[in-house]
Specification:
mainly alpha; 5 helices
Length: about 120
């Protein structure tokens, strides 16, 4: 009886590998820089909530940041994957919440205790 194939669970690294392959296979890349991510820009508060959901013991304080200076003058473009999706057709499988949770779970499994070192 042949052994059953065991495949590891999906992880954010799968998105990176598949995204790089999609970029290499793209007929044309219209931009010099891409962000491999879901097609939306997450706010600082959404990122903090994703971390809190994955690591309930995390203590996160968010200050005012660059407000009010960046209200009308963005200090960077959106970190979303819209351009990458348009040029390659590839969409990540992991959204912010799933990616942060997978990373936190991976850190918990590490014998070196990286999550504890990171403050979680």
């Amino acid at each position: 009886m042949p052994a059953a194939a065991i495949s590891p669970p999906a992880s954010p690294i799968d998105d990176v590998v598949e995204g790089l392959i999609a970029a290499a296979d793209a007929a044309r890349l219209n931009h010099a820089v891409y962000h491999l991510a879901p097609p939306r820009n997450y706010s600082t508060f959404e990122i903090a909530e994703a971390v809190r959901a994955a690591v309930p013991e995390a203590r996160i304080a968010i200050g005012p940041g660059a407000q009010p200076w960046n209200t009308y003058t963005p200090i960077r473009g959106p970190l979303d994957g819209t351009r990458f999706i348009a040029d390659t057709g590839f969409r990540t499988k992991f959204d912010l919440t799933a990616g942060v949770r997978a990373y936190a779970d991976w850190l918990r499994q590490r014998p070196e205790g990286e999550l504890a070192k990171a403050g979680g």
